[in-house]
Each structure stands twice: as structure tokens, then as C-alpha cells.
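Hi there, hope your week has been kind to you so far. No rush at all, and the record is pasted right below.
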Amino acid sequence: MASPLYQQIAEDLHQQIASGDLAAGSQLPTEADLKGQYRASRNTVRDAVKRLISLGLVETKPGQGTFVVEKMEPFVTTLTGNVDGFGGGEGDLYRSEIEAGNRKFAVSPVQVEIQEATEEVARGLLIDAGSEVISRHERRFIDNHPWSLQTSFYPMKLAERGAERLRGARDIPEGTVQYLADRLNIRQRGYRDWITVRALNSAEASFFRISADGRIQVYEIFRTAFDEKGEPMRLTITVYPADRNQFIINVGNVPGVNAQEGTGIPSEDPLDEAQPAHGS
């Protein structure tokens, strides 16, 4: 028994995408062209396109048309790292993991704002909602593709005590962890990651160039860093689209792993030696 015509159309277009005849990023023929090519009704063509959308092969951009989705090679982030500095997903350790896989890392200039703490930020920093905080925001790219959004929040009292560079709209080359240790003798001694999954908002969909139809969601990692007294000194929130990001968490004494190749090749364990603590 022959399959319905819309499935036959979808399978033919699927094969064209797989073969490269319809290249990543290219536009599908218009609805009218598909109707003529396959001698099908408008509803049949629309059902075929819906089938391709459900498979994650194409996406519709309002006012533009339907395009072949560009598949990205996932990057695997090791979330564990040196507790005295920036861990996985931050600073030089994150950059070195990317470059070790022969991929290109780039980051936008730091965007600094003075904000009132939301309930979410206040809860992470153990301060009152509405208290002033300093936010330092970066957009991060791998191979020129938008890859993640990262914002670090600091209690205003740190700047008032002398860490004025937190308010400056410039990168802190030695990293804020080292800067706070040098300037205020506040040393990071650990951090906790809280990982959630949610739908993109409109701004994130625009930045990541992803349709906000709910098909692709984002990981949101809330990292609270603690000083030697056990008090929160920083809350970093990082947003990672699920279509291009994967994670590894190491617990205990484990051999280093080349995560990008999925192999068990021994490498230097970030827990063994302190890494430079660069970052926002």
C-alpha cells in the first residue's frame, strides 16, 4: 500500500537535504512551485513541510519562507573545574577546551549595567530583591555561530568596598575571581550549579537564530560562587541552546577525556592544577 502523497513529498525533500542538493541554509521551493512539481494540493504540500519541520530538517521564517536547518557540530562543555577560579563553561578553561578541538572562540565586549536584583538573582546571592547589583553580560560564539549567553551578577557592596573595576565597561584581563582576591582578599572556594531547561524568549531566539516554536529549548545554568566564609560572591547565569551544546560532569578521581571526540584519551585533569581565572 502506497504511503500518502504528503509523506512521499516529505521523503523526497528529505533525500535532497541528505544528499546536499538542498544545502544547509538554502530556501525550499515556494509552496506554488512544490504544488506544480509534485502535482499536489496546497494542503498536501503544507503537510509535507510540517513533516520536515517536525523532524527538525527545515524551519519557517515569517515573511521569508522555509529554509533547510543548518546542523551544528555540538560542543561538549566540562562543567567541573578548579574551585579556586573559573570552572567549566567560563574563562580560560572554556576557551582552551574550544581551541583544543580546533574550533574558534570569540566573545563580545562586556556589557555592564547596574540593576535591581530580581527574585531569581536575589535568591542566588542571598540578598533582598530590589537590591542593587552589577551585571556583566557577554555574548559568546564558536566558529562564528552564536553559542551561549552569559551574565554574571555581583553584589553592589563589592564595588563599594573598593572593587570599582566591576562597574567598568571593560574586560578584567586577570578575571574577576583573581581581581576580587587581589583587591578585597575575597577568595572563591567553591561553586554550585543549578541546571534547568526552558523555552527560548524572543531575544534569545533572535540571537541564536532559532525559531521560537518550542522545538529547540535552552539549558540555563545558575552558578553560585562562594567565598571562604560560605557567602555568595557571584551568580553567573549561562544560556545554552540544546541543539549545539552537551555537558560532562566529573565526580571524583577520573581520567581526563577528550570530550569533543568522545574518547577516553588521558589529558590534563583541570582539578589537578589551577587554571588562569579569566572571565567577566
Notes: The longest strand covers residues 188-199. The mean pLDDT is 87. The chain is about 25% helix and 30% strand. The longest helix spans residues 5-19.
